[in-house]
Amino acid sequence: MLFALPDVIYGFDLFIKAPNLGITSIAANTDEAEVRVADLVLVKDAVGYVKDTIRRHRPDLVGFSCMTFQYPTAVRLAKVVKEVDRSIKVVFGGYHPTLTYQEPQPDCIDFIVRGEGEQTFHELILALKGKMRIEDVKGLSFKSEGDDFRHNEARPLLNLDTLKIPARDARLLKGFHACGRPLDVVETSRGCTLGCRYCCIQSMYGRSFRTYRIDRVVDDIYDAARHGAKSILFVDDNINLDNKRFRRICEAIIEHGLNHLHYCIQASVYGLSEPGIVQIMAKAGFKVVFLGIESMIHTNLSFLSPRKSNLYTSDTTFKVVRELREQGIIILGGFVLGNPEDSAAEFWHHLEQARRLKVDLPIFFLSTPYPGTELREELKNLGLITNADDYSRYTCFEANIRTKNLSSEDIDELEWRLYHEWYKTFGWFLWNNIKKHYPIYTIRTILKTYPKHLLNTLGLGAKFKPYSVVKR
After folding, report:
1. Residue 400 and residue 412: Cα distance in Å, rounded?
2. pTM for this structure?
3. Residues 350-385: pLDDT tens digits?
């Protein structure tokens, strides 16, 4: 039984509830056992659901996949599993367990799958069945004598051509959506070679970029559509790292008549600056781009991503955003604030730039010192980390650092004020493409959220940051 965690950032869950791809891929590539998966983002009472599911299915092994801010919840639910049945073995996997496997582990964890999980989990099942030695399972950490963990050698990166299409039939829960349209996720590649300081992908995969065959990508989209999807979220780390290939994916979508679906991606400014790429995306049915703008200040961009700072300028960002807007593609513009030299002026500068760009929604990320990143080491050396180990706050929307000019409290206050200023008038609504593609859902969301915002404006409510509250 594999669980994805219920923790989501308030604001994101208003627009999208997406399934976890990793656990369905593991289910598809495990032949020695029946594997069921559940995305707890769809349930209101995660503890109650986990208890009921364990009692109903009586699994021998339970797994949790988690990111850093979800880790405390994963530990809590693992303890719930042990309370129901102490004999059940618990395995953790995903980014955070992979990057922190050498740290002390709570008693409720028996195994850690490090890195890609498909082959390691399959071999763990074989080992539990006595068909191979646990010590020979590459990429596995396991509890040995005295509750100390033993760490087997790392597993080499997988050949993606060997992986089966995710087992969507293994899901116990349904109801994923993007702006009200049934949603599924598809992966066309893994890894990224850009080496941004804030990103932990290189600690997971190294600086690598591996791809699935395009016919396999098409088959995966067909399978998602057969399971009811009308929108597809590509969850690649950097899908347009190879734009020739990305163009071929768009062409294949059109050739196979799959451009009636709505597609969402995350992309870099540089990747979308190639002439003609935005236009073919629009023809293929791409409706939403999370655009990693990161910083409109060159020195900050150089700090966050030295390589990107050599590939494009702020003028490139304006050009790419203009082309996306001309094609009617929704832009979620991501900015990273709270860099070492930042003062309040840099925060307000990026609000003004978001308005000038006319992104549909700005997302003001706060610089976060994730384990396994160059950023963590850099900020640690500068003495700027204010919260090193309460991972529940590692959401990118709560300050865990200070700058040379701002305290953590200053940063939290500034982020709230940015969102407050953005939403306090309906100016942003006039140029917004979200209402064009999803008018009814947009109106419903505004009616749901604006009463709280109005109370804040009148000084009658608690401070409300649209993207900073974690729902668990």
Report:
1. 9
2. 0.94
3. 999 999 999 999 999 999 999 999 999 999 999 999
